[in-house]
Amino acid sequence: MCGIAGFIDPLADEAKSAAFLERMLNRIAHRGPDDSGAWIEGDVAIGHRRLSIIDMSPFGHQPMVSDDKRYVIAFNGEIYNHQQLRKELKAAGRRFRGHSDTEVLLALIQECGLESAVKRCIGMFAIVLWDRRERTLQFARDRFGEKPLYYGWYGGALLFGSELKALTEHKNFVREVDPESVALLLRFGYIPSPYSVYRHTRKLRPGTILTLRLPQERDEPLTAEKCAPVESTYWSHQETILHGLEKPFSGSFDQAVEELEYLLRDAVRLQMQADVPLGAFLSGGIDSSTIVAFMQQLSSQRVRTYSIGFDVPSHDEAECATRVAQYLGTDHVVSYVRSADVLNVIPQLPLMYDEPLGDSSQIPTYLVARLARRDVTVSLSGDGGDEIFCGYHKYRLGERFARLKGRQLLAVLVGALPWSTIQSIASRLSRRLGRKLTVAHFRTLSRLLAGKRFQDIAAVVAEIGKDLEMLMPTRTTRTTAFDLERPGALEASYHRLAMLLDRESYLPDDILTKVDRATMAVSLESRAPLLDHRIAEFSARLPMSFLVDGGETKRVLRHVLYRKVPRALVDRPKRGFELPLTEWLKVELRPWATELLASRTCEDLLNLDYCRSLFELHSEGKRDLTLALWPILGFLAWAEEWL
Question: Which one of the listed residues 2, 121, 390, 602 is annotated catalytic?
């Protein structure tokens, strides 16, 4: 696991380039504390920070130059099938100096080009590849977006890096916030690819390659137009699902369980390769318990597992994780989190997450990563299970609205109700349900009913900020993270379409972003075997009844786990990896939130008076607005640090 930073600046001399590249790399030293490397030639500067996992020798040093001197690569991630690829390349006559996966990847690129190479790789990665002969720069990102890559043109230079903080160290960078991206943050809790919080910076989409052909003239400012950027997709979630519908799995449910068990065992086996200590995060839920069960089965010694607990019973899963660990025989460590621990972490969040993220589970994720880093350098996780095997309860909610008869007629009726009638209905329902309902809830209901396409309904279900029109002083047009150009057969299945949208947006830009920044902040590599693309392709072929049946979610995955762990240990209501923030915001975190909301830093981007009124409603116990407030507070904390 590593960090990448660099730029192409035709107007800079090599001495100044070296100084700026060093600053950019130092800013992401946490991603690679073991080694640092720079490659500078003319207008091109490519840097790398290394966290040594495989091949601890100098032969793994990056940036790495191909043996024919044509290519220079900076690689962040792991190629899990590198040993098999090495055998094939050796049979074709290739020779290797070390045993790193980077050297294998570079040789594979020499053999068949970048696109063909990444298609043959099982892994997670962000790649920067410079072709010295053709003056072509290529960026590539893994299929699910486990590893990040940002880029943008500033002041005649192209800047790129694993984290935004690297780009900000270059003299040309301008910190101009994109209001449209802020709107997406407030609506969904994250900023989806390809957008970033800064107007002129982009995230490379997962499963894509960006090719830039640089002009031969090196004395003029560089622009996007001069580079003629071409983005190509080498792997697509949508195509994977459509292919699965065309060629469905024809076996029985038991045969599907057998096949999935084989795929999972191989994925875990590949991801357990490391020349450093290795462990796993364990919550005691279906996903992480499955990964740990295979790890212990494949290991000759006790696997190290880690979890955290809270002193609030409704949010504490530590006891469940401990029971699973005891049954599997792992070497388990638990740490309990108090509000004081969270108060200590909160000031670090804007530095860790140099792009604002509205997911409060970023805090416990960091705490469990810090706990694991005391003993191990690599930790496996169960991330991706819900998106691959249909685990979220929101899918059932959306399905009900999608199939509701007379839905659009009801939408017209709700939309035609007078304001006074809406207030009256809201008041009556509030008394009956025991929770405060507002006009915003009726707006959401109206949009759910009015959705013409399944993806419209899925987008509304995914929202956490329901009052966007009130939160921002100016109207924004980028109102959704989702836009499938050709949903095709997916429009016949709400579940599949909703899972697709989560895989393309929520998974990479919230879940995997959260995990990457939290683990990299402590120089820990996180791996997710459930995101082996072979498993996703297999899942796409299964009948929906194999994934969800009645109240049983992730059905086929559960039954793999039941072969290894008693049902009683893992069958329980699903909980997210969440803090007891609802109460903490009223007491322990209230001074921090109040101070942020008193700031005028973002008054041109947020309606701060309205934000303060929401916080008062929450503090007084009139409404639980935790989900809506956390992105607001996170953005304000980020702005105080970076603006």
Answer: 2
